């Protein structure tokens, strides 16, 4: 998805930047970055496409809270499969995001150690 599509999706859903960021599991600043054309990680792009496709199919916002409501419907068997798919995709996306953040944390730790070692000679002066 590109920046225009993301902004249009958020507006079509009637969500503020904060609400949309909570749906995606990112900060408000990250959503602003996406809407300004910054790079979107594959895991978030996948989630955005799923939200768009679900919205187009259902004409409503997919939210985790809707899961409970759908389970109470008479058509539980029909809806439970799509709910299960949604939750599995969401969990998979969250796992990918955790992995990305863990890898980034390791990079920052290694850089921090390198910088401390580089600064060590200057401490004694």
What do these coordinates show?
This protein is an all-alpha fold and about 120 residues long. It has one domain. The protein contains six helices and no strands. It has helices spanning about 5-10, 15-25, 30-35, 40-60, 65-70, 75-125. α4 (about 40-60) packs antiparallel against α6 (about 75-125). The N and C termini lie far apart (about 55 Å). Mean pLDDT is about 80; it is low at about 60-65 and about 65-75.
Q: Helix count?
A: 6
General shape = elongated
The separation of the N and C termini measures: 53 Å
Share in helix: over 70%
Rg from alpha-carbon coordinates? 20 Å
Low-confidence stretches: 60-65, 67-76
How many beta-strand runs?
0
Succession of helices and strands: HHHHHH
Alpha-beta classification: mainly alpha
For the largest beta-sheet, the strand count, sense and barrel status come to: none
- How many distinct folded domains? 1
Mean pLDDT: 79
Report the β-strand fraction as a percent range: under 5%
